[in-house]
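User:
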Amino acid sequence: MARLPDLLEEVDNKVQRLKAALAKLPQKPASDPVVTVMTMLESFQKDVALLVKGRPEAGRAGLIQSLRRSKGPSVRRYFVKIPTSGRSTNQITRPRLPRRGEASPK
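Assistant: Predicted structure:
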């Protein structure tokens, strides 16, 4: 019986740790998982769009502006123009990657 207060204190400590661990867990998912996934996808899409386009009002360049300013190798050399009837050939392009053993186009 002399050990009972120590056991009660140990149980209380473990309950406190368990409550703290439970508080760190994410919230219960919504009742409709499709809505949850769609909301997450929409948020992800907006984040990616901001990274690609940038935020000119905040003075932050996006991926497109960064690529235009970079001095790295030109990606345009991998595109070839496809002639089409009645359309300008500048509108449609497709990638032309080098085949095995072939030097990259310049």
